[in-house]
Design goal:
The protein has one domain: 3-Layer(aba) Sandwich (Pathogenesis-related Protein p14a). About 30% of the residues lie in helices and about 20% in strands. The protein has 6 helices and 9 strands. Strands 1, 2, 3, 4, 5, 6, 7, 8 and 9 form a 9-stranded mixed beta sheet that branches. Helix 1 packs parallel to helix 5 and helix 2 packs parallel to helix 5. The protein is globular and about 40 Å long.
Length: about 240
């Protein structure tokens, strides 16, 4: 199980290339199978993962910090899938290959995100199909690439990926996740792990609970090998 996190604040030029925290967590017991449900629940509800530490039960990858992103951005890049609208209260399938199950899992994640925000006295995030479109396209790129990264070779950086959908924003962020379990429990386990983060390595949690974002687009993709999760957050100008 792996998660990535990245902020983008285009209104602040120095923040466009700010550090990126990457925390990779590998838990062999989370593979799908008869005992996977209990294992996923344990991982989601157990002690918070602290990057750079290790335990006999789980292997935690070391934290890395990215201070720059590739300078080359394809000028002819466009999203590969058509949006079905701009915004709405519930996830609308974006892209011709999004299944009903994947859309339903995205709905479950949206519900959980907003429930957690309400617990902390924060307003709910509004589903936005343009953010969902950028999340959808990048999720497919991650699957093809085979690993989590905020900079898949040949793809634009986050601000250009979101901007290409027509979403004009003052702030944006990206959370990424990957799980061996390809069902709702796998996706919700990723969310639980993000919410269990502790400072200072709590970038995903701070994004999920940030008052600076108003909109969200979530894409879940199950490619037969893993479940991929991309969440794009934004606030329109």
């Amino acid at each position: 199980m792996c998660v990535h996190h990245r902020h983008q604040h285009p209104s602040s030029p120095t923040a466009l290339r700010r550090s990126v925290t990457l925390a990779a967590i590998v838990t062999a017991s989370l593979a799908a199978g008869s005992g996977a449900a209990g294992s996923a629940a344990t991982a989601a509800g157990g002690p918070a993962a602290v990057a750079g530490t290790s335990t006999s039960a789980q292997a935690f990858g070391q934290a890395r910090y990215w201070t720059h992103l590739p300078a080359s951005v394809p000028t002819n890049w466009r999203p590969r899938w058509a949006s079905t609208g701009n915004s709405g209260p519930d996830p609308t399938p974006v892209g011709g290959d999004t299944t009903a199950l994947e859309a339903a899992i995205a709905q479950s994640l949206l519900t959980q995100v907003n429930a957690d925000r309400a617990t902390h006295g924060l307003a709910s995030l509004t589903w936005d199909n343009q953010l969902a479109l950028s999340a959808h396209d990048y999720n497919r790129a991650l699957s093809e690439h085979g690993d989590l990264t905020h900079a898949v070779p040949g793809y634009p950086v986050l601000e250009d990926r979101i901007g290409a959908t027509g979403y004009t924003y003052s702030a944006a962020a990206e959370n990424l996740g990957m799980h061996d379990r390809q069902d709702a429990q796998g996706a919700l386990a990723l969310h639980s792990m993000m919410m269990a983060e502790v400072p200072p390595l709590d970038g995903h949690r701070r994004t999920l609970l940030s008052p600076n974002y108003r909109d969200i687009g979530i894409n879940v993709y199950m490619d037969g090998q893993k479940l991929w999760l991309t969440e794009h957050f934004g606030t329109r100008k």
